[in-house]
Amino acid sequence: MQGIINPNKTKTIKELGKVDITEFKQMVMSLPDEYWEEHNRRKPNSFGALSQTQHIVFKFVRNFQSHRESVEYPVWKSWQDKIEPLLQTITKSYGYQDSIYPRIMLAKLPGGCRIPLHIDRNPAANYPHKIHIPIQTNPQAYFFVGKQAYHFAEGYGYEVNNKAKHGVINNGNTPRIHLIFEYADVPAKIASVVR
After folding, report:
1. Is 140 within the bounds of a domain?
2. Which end of the chain is more exposed for a tag (fewer CB within 10 A), N or C?
3. Residues 121-147: pLDDT tens digits?
């Protein structure tokens, strides 16, 4: 299943509805720069396309060949009760009875920075739906699928097509912060491994 591209992925962008991020946003906005820097140094997703983006990784695939087994980072325990309700609300419309969230992270792209167009090529990214919830944005932050630009509103969920060329431009003066995660249906839940 990990090599198969999920035929139910959106072709471009799919809006999934609104979720209350009020309390979560307050927590994220209160994080000091040192917290971001500390977690960003240890991130497993140090790809060239993401060089200008800082990450706080909560869960990540054990290897890039399969989405079926994740590693929980120690920071997950202190955020889990705040993040899980957001994920469950946004993914409810998929109707999956048995599902997993292989990757969960916060991503901060500073003002004046960009993520160049790229495709998520690792096999672990083929099957899961890739979903963004903007926590902080500005009118000059755009997500691209090919040449088409989209502005994502705070507190809404958006599935993005990670198997098409996609990227981001933040021309604003403030950081763009998204909660980004993957979501997949599986025949049987695979327990996450605590790191």
Report:
1. no
2. N
3. 899 999 999 999 999 999 999 999 989
Phi, psi (5° rounding) for residue 142?
A: -130, 140
Cα of first residue to Cα of last residue in the chain, in angstroms, is 25
Lay out the sheet containing 148-150: strands in order across: 113-118, 166-170, 141-145, 148-150
Cα–Cα distance measured from residue 126 to residue 150, given in angstroms and rounded to the nearest whole number: 22
In-domain check, residue 142: no
Structure tokens at 188: 């049987």
Residue 53's domain spans which residues? 1-132+159-164+185-195
Q: Which pTM was predicted?
A: 0.91
Q: pLDDT tens digits for 45-73? A: 766 556 789 999 999 999 999 999 999 99
Q: Is residue 178 part of a domain?
A: no
Name the pairing type of β-strands 176-185 and 129-136. Answer: antiparallel
Tokens of 118: 């790229």
Kindly indicate the confidence band of residue 187, based on its pLDDT and cuts at 50, 70 and 90: low
Upper half-sphere CA count for residue 37 (Cβ side, 13 Å): 3
CB atoms within 10 A of CB 99: 17
Cα atoms in the Cβ-side hemisphere of radius 13 Å centred on 176: 27
